[in-house]
Amino acid sequence: MISFFSNSSFAQQRSEEEMQKIKDAKVAIITNRLNLTPEQSTGFWPVYNEFSQKRKDIHRAQRKIINDKKAEGKTDEQVLNNLTEVQALKQKELDLEKEYQNRFLKVISANQVIELYKAERTFNDMLIQRLKQRPERN
Prior knowledge:
Order of helices and strands: HHHH
Strand content: under 5%
Number of strands: 0
Radius of gyration: 19 Å
Mean pLDDT: 85
Number of helices: 4
Shape: globular
Helix content: over 70%
Structural class: mainly alpha
Largest sheet: none
C-alpha cells in the first residue's frame, strides 16, 4: 500500500514538474519573441496570465460539453443545444481576445501583440510535435 501511494505521489509530482517545464518554456519563447523591456514585462505578465487562465477555463468548458454530452442516444434537439453551448463559448473566447488585446495594447505595442500571437502559435506547434514524438506509455 505504501508503495502504491509513493508511486502515485511520484507520478503526480513528475506531472507537476513537467507542467512547470512547459510553462517555463512558453514564458521563455514569449519573452524572447516580444523583447519586453523591464517596464513592459512588469505590466504584461499579470495581464497575460489572467488572460491565459480565462482562456484555459473556456477551453476546459468546451471539452467538457463535447466529451460529457456525446451525441449517442440524444435527440436532435439535445445535440443542437450542445452545439449551441459550444458556439456560445467560442464567442466568449473571441470576446475575451478582443478585451485582452485592448489591455495588452496599454502595455505593449501592436507589433508586440502580433508577435505574442505568433509566439503562442509557435509554442503550441512545438508542443504538439514533441507529444507526437513521445513514445506511448503503457
